[in-house]
């Protein structure tokens, strides 16, 4: 199963400060409602998820390359560990098993 592609947007719903909508389409016909005391912050985070995932995927590729190139350098361990964390987060976001 894949996620709804971005970009997503968020908007306040009515007069209630705790109700925010997150939408994939400009017509705002399909989306999600966020109800919480931190509704706006949660809606912003959810709306940014596709961009965050894309950036993390690119960062993981870079970190893996850094770890490979610096194989005998102390920094390679850090880059490799960060790459593993990134890949685990990506797997969780995509509903896959951790690598």
How is this structure best described in words?
This protein is of the alpha+beta class and 99 residues long. The chain has one domain. Helices cover 53% and strands 14% of the residues. The protein has helices at 39-69, 74-94, and strands at residues 9-12, 19-23, 31-35. The two termini are 18 Å apart.
Short description, anyone?
The protein contains 2 helices and 3 strands, in the order E-E-E-H-H. The chain is elongated, with a radius of gyration of 18 Å. It is of the alpha+beta class.
How would you write the strand order of the largest sheet?
1-2-3
For the record, the count of structural domains works out to 1
Query: Share of helix among residues?
Result: 40-55%
The coarse overall form would be elongated
The Rg value, from CA coordinates, equals 18 Å
Characterize the main sheet. Answer: 3 strands, antiparallel
Q: Give me the number of helical elements.
A: 2
What is the number of E strands?
3
Attribute tags:
99 residues; single chain; 2 helices; alpha+beta; elongated
């Amino acid at each position: 199963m894949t996620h709804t592609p971005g970009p997503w947007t968020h908007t306040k719903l009515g007069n209630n400060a705790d109700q925010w909508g997150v939408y994939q389409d400009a017509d705002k016909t399909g989306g999600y409602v966020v109800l919480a005391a931190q509704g706006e912050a949660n809606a912003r985070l959810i709306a940014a998820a596709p961009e965050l995932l894309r950036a993390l995927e690119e960062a993981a590729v870079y970190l893996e390359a850094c770890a490979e190139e610096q194989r005998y350098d102390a920094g390679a361990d850090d880059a490799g560990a960060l790459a593993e964390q990134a890949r685990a987060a990506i797997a969780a976001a995509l509903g896959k098993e951790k690598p």
